[in-house]
Structure formats: structure tokens, C-alpha cells
Amino acid sequence: MHGLKDDMRDGLVPAEFPGSVLVNEKPDEEQNHLKNNYRRLDNGKIAPEFRYFMKRIMPAIAPYRSKYDRYKGVKNLSQMYTITDEAFGLLMLLNEFDNWKAKAEAKASGEKAGYLRKKFVDGRSGNRAGWNLAGLNTYVRICKHLKTRRDEKESIEMEEIMKSENASYDNQQKRVEFDECEEEELLDYMSEQEIEMRRQMKKKCGQPVEI
To answer: Where are the domains of the chain?
Structure first.
């Protein structure tokens, strides 16, 4: 995944990050992990942490589908990133952030970072089962509430603002053909973690496990 700890070290991460982007580990009374201000405007402005997440982290989550640099001025975010893409990005951030932050702080101070176990899946834990049940359940709930949040008028407006900011004359003249790939093609671009997670998700939801 994207080198967030390097961006932290180089001062490229906005001071507000992760802010509204870092989902709550424990869901609210409606089983929603999303922050109330995620994908919502702040006095008519887009939150800096949301911009960073969509411009720097999400393109690494779904590079095969989004082609962010190519389409950022002609497609909306929801056309570049599926609900499951975005939910996976949010889950990965929750899983990894404490570890990234500790390493970045240690590197900046010239110290050696100690080992910090990740929340839902950890390659060094010795657990070959992949994402634990808490991680899978969190992913399902994020997908559910993200679908509702994306359909809100304010969220749609945010996407239009970001697209217009990135639009150039050349991009506006293009006729964009949406890339359609068979699942077999997508496997070439997916990380082992994402492949395993989607396999587990299909099994959990009672769908045929084809990957």
C-alpha cells in the first residue's frame, strides 16, 4: 500500500489527517464506523484529509481500475473507486495507521521503531488465516454505510468539486471509455491481502468463491 509513513516523514501529509477519514474501530449505535463528517463539506469546503486520502492512498488501493491521474478530471470518485475499493482503503488505514505513525515518528527522531501489532491482519503475527473476524465484520459494515453516504447530495457535490478542480481543456474534450476488466485480469493487479480478503468476503456472504 501507499507509503504513508514516508509522506509523514517528508511533511506531505496534511495536519488534519487522518481526521474524518480514520473510521471508528468501534461502531456507533447504528453499527456505523464512518465519522459523521466523512464525505461531508465543512463550510462548503472539502476536508484536507479527504483530499489526501483520495489523491494519495486510494490510487494505490485500486490502480487497475481508477487510473486516477488519467481520469481525475473527467470521472467522479465513485466512478473510479467502487464502494468495496473505498471501504477496503478505509479498513486498511484503520488496520495500519498506528503502525505507520509509530514508524514515522521513530524515523524522524532517529530511533528504531518497536514492533506494533496491527488490528485485523498482520503478516508478522504468524496467523495464516488472513483477516480476522472483527476485520471482516468491520468491512461489511463500512460497505453498507458507505453506500448510503455516497448517495447523499453533499457527497455527490464533493465529487463534482474535486472533478472540476482537476479538469483541463484536454480532459473535457476526451470521450472517456470506462475500462471494463474481467476478474481474471484484475487478479494480476491485486495484492495477496486483497485477494484473500475478497475470497473470505465471498465465502462469508455465501457467494461462489471463484478467486
So the answer is: 4-204
Q: What predicted TM-score, i.e. pTM, was given to this entire model?
A: 0.73
Q: List pLDDT tens digits, range 2-32.
A: 566 677 777 788 888 889 999 999 998 889 9
The DSSP string of the chain is ---HHHHHHTT-S-TT-SGGGS--SS--TTS--S-TTTT--BTTB--HHHHHIIIIIHHHHSHHHH-HHHHTTTS-HHHHS-HHHHHHHHHHHHHHHHHHHHHHHHHHTTPPPPP---SS--TTS--TT-S-HHHHHHHHHHHHHHHHHHTSHHHHHHHHHHHHHH--HHHHH--PPPP---HHHHTTTS-HHHHHHHHHHHHHTT-----
